[in-house]
Amino acid sequence: MAQTERTFIAAIGDEDSITGLLLAGIGHIDSHHKKNFLVVDAKTPLAAVEDAFREFTKRKDIAIVLINQHIAEEIRPLIDEHDQAFPTILEIPSKDHPYDPEKDSVLKRVRRLFGE
């Protein structure tokens, strides 16, 4: 599948973040009832978050995976081992958890490239 066929954005986040993204139009459910988003709350098992991340990063129709940074912290080893350009992993803030650039995996990689 060509890179031009990567047409979707996937999202893993809290209810407010996912609701906003779905209202913006990123939501998609395919013919096999697979969604491109996961709502994470206090009752969501860590294994479900890990499984969704693995699925989204293996799908050939996803170009970007958005994930709330506080959720990314819970699966940091998985995020750090993802080394492909597509899908790109972008950590985003949530209403209750501000963005911390020191924790962002993309910025960490950039710093390593520049020897910081």
Automatic annotation (TrEMBL):
The record describes its membrane topology as: Peripheral membrane protein
Q: What keywords would UniProt list here?
A: Hydrogen ion transport, Ion transport, Membrane, Transport, Vacuole
Gene Ontology CC terms, in alphabetical order: fungal-type vacuole membrane; proton-transporting V-type ATPase, V1 domain
Q: Name one Pfam family in it.
A: ATP-synt_F
User: Carries keyword Endoplasmic reticulum?
Assistant: no
Q: Which InterPro entries match?
A: ATPase_V1-cplx_f_g_su, ATPase_V1-cplx_fsu_euk, ATPase_V1_fsu_sf
Q: Does the keyword ATP-binding apply?
A: no
Where in the cell?
Answer: Vacuole membrane
Q: List the GO molecular function terms.
A: proton-transporting ATPase activity, rotational mechanism
Q: How does it assemble?
A: V-ATPase is a heteromultimeric enzyme composed of a peripheral catalytic V1 complex (components A to H) attached to an integral membrane V0 proton pore complex (components: a, c, c', c'', d, e, f and VOA1).
Briefly, what is this protein's role? Subunit of the V1 complex of vacuolar(H+)-ATPase (V-ATPase), a multisubunit enzyme composed of a peripheral complex (V1) that hydrolyzes ATP and a membrane integral complex (V0) that translocates protons. V-ATPase is responsible for acidifying and maintaining the pH of intracellular compartments.
So what family is this one in? Belongs to the V-ATPase F subunit family.
- Kindly provide the name given to this protein in its UniProt entry: V-type proton ATPase subunit F
Q: State the species of origin.
A: Modicella reniformis
